[in-house]
Structures are given as structure tokens and as C-alpha cells.
Records
---
Amino acid sequence: MQPLGKRTKKFALDVFRFCEALPNRSSCRIVKRQLMRSASSVGANYRAAQRAQSRKAFVAKLAIVEEEADESLFWLEMLEELAVGNPQVLQRLKGEADELVAIIVTSKKTAKE
């Protein structure tokens, strides 16, 4: 398994590549912009969490990572409902977003102890 920092960065890059292949209709433009923002925020905020000055700041950043990963999952589900994009890639990205949420939830609980 990859270190989480690399994994969150790869998730963002994979989402970007997936979004580049989406059709250019208005619904897709809106969703892919939001998805790219939330997916890149997962990696950026996880990286920021690694530099947190306190446990409280670390947990706060992880909370943002959790929210952004869950938001990414929401936008991926929207694309699934719109029936656009490569279904196999979409399922893989949904699975990765779901796993990232689960990992971050566990990390937050551990950090709070």
C-alpha cells in the first residue's frame, strides 16, 4: 500500500485524467469542476495536515480531508447518475474515495486518543 500522501495525490491526478475525458455539456462542466476541486483538496489538505503544529491542528486538517473526500464521492455519484465517463474508472475512483474517507476517519479517531 502506498503512503497516504502519495495515495491522495494519485487520487487527485486520476480524477483530473478522468474529468478530461468527460463530455463538455453543461452538467458535466459543473460537476467536473467541483470534483476536481474537492479531489485536489484531499491531497493538499492531507499534505498540510502533515505539517500541523499541534495535534488539534492535525485533527482539524484531517476533518477537512474527510469532508473533501466525501464530497468527491458525492460528485462521482452524480456522474454515475448522469451515466457519463468510463464506468470502470468511475467505480475505481468511487472505491478509492470511499477508502480514503474510511482511512481518514480512523486516523482522526486515533489522533484524538
---
Amino acid sequence: MQTHLEQEISSLRMKVLEMAAYAEKALDKSLRALTERNSELAQEVIDKDYEINQLECEIDEFALRLLALAQPVARDLRFIVGCMRIIVNLERIGDEAVNISERSMLLAHRPPLPFSKPLEQLSQVCLEMLRTAIKAFKDDDSELADQVCTADEQANELDMTVLRNLIDYMVQQSPAVERSVHSILASRSLERVGDLSTNIAECVIFIVHGVDVKHRCHRF
């Protein structure tokens, strides 16, 4: 039979996974809006951002109450602190999904730009990074978390490819500057999603191993 603290820890895990599902769905929709040039889908992401924000507040309050009343130690303490870090990153991913959606709406009714493949690749890499980070948290899998850290290097490289391609294109095609800038900003939001997913992976490693590996998660 679970102790009261174990039950509360299980509840906290489920709440974080619920928020993670919302964030993943928002990111997925925003990326579909970008690639499919679907302004209605983009608007859905913007309209539902409050749900992610609300969940962050609820989980933060729950975790703080658990810290105060249960006074957990060792692994339980790490888990609660790790969850509090994770939800901050999930909320920021929701914000980046909104940013991408806003760019999508501005681009939806304008001629598509060339060099779309690197941006589409970046979209898939970053979405998979988030999904892998969430699964690592769900399964307490530090090896899976480490894969997210490795993938972040690929995301950074793709972001730079998008940037270089579009800057070159703007030099040659000045009427395309505004569209190119919106695409670059969408790419930067995706790069930040990669960083935030890496942060979540680092939290998983902290929970599992008790080692703070910020900025060096594949060296634990």
C-alpha cells in the first residue's frame, strides 16, 4: 500500500504529464499550422495557451504545498524540485508554440519561401526532442534524457542553416525580407524549444541520479 507521500508524488507526476501533453499538442499544432499554412490551426494554439499557463500555476501550488507539509528528503525531494523546474520549461514551450503560430498567421496568405526543407527538419527534430524528454520523465529514463541533449546539437545546426539560407535569399530578393524575417523568428522559436526540451531532460537526470547537469547533461 502506498504511503500518503507516495500517493501525492504519483498525483504530481500525473499532473506534470497532463501539462506536458498540452504543451506537446500546442507545439504539434503550431508546426502543422506553419507547414500547412493554416491560420485557423494557429489561432487554436493562441486561444488555448491559457490552459497551459493555468496548469503551471496549479502544479506549482501543489508542489509547494507538498514541500511544506510533507518535508520530503532524498529522491522524493529531487522529484518535486525537478517537477517544479520542468513545468517552467513546459510553460515556455507553450509560449514558443504561440510565437510560431503568430508567425504562421502572418505567412499563411503569402507566397511560400524556398529553403523550406531545413525548417521542416528542424520542426520534426524539436518536436521529437520534446516527446523524448516527456517519455524520459514518464519512465525515469536518464539514457533517453541523454538522447535529447545530443539531438540539441542537430537542432542548433539546422537553425543556423535556416538563418544562412534566408539571409542569402533576402540579399538577393529584397521584396521577400518581411516573409524571411518571420520564418527566421519561427526558426529561433524552434531552437528555443530544443533548448527547453534539453532543460527538461536535464531535470530527469537530476531526479534519477541526484546530479545537477545543467548545460552538460550528456556528461553525467
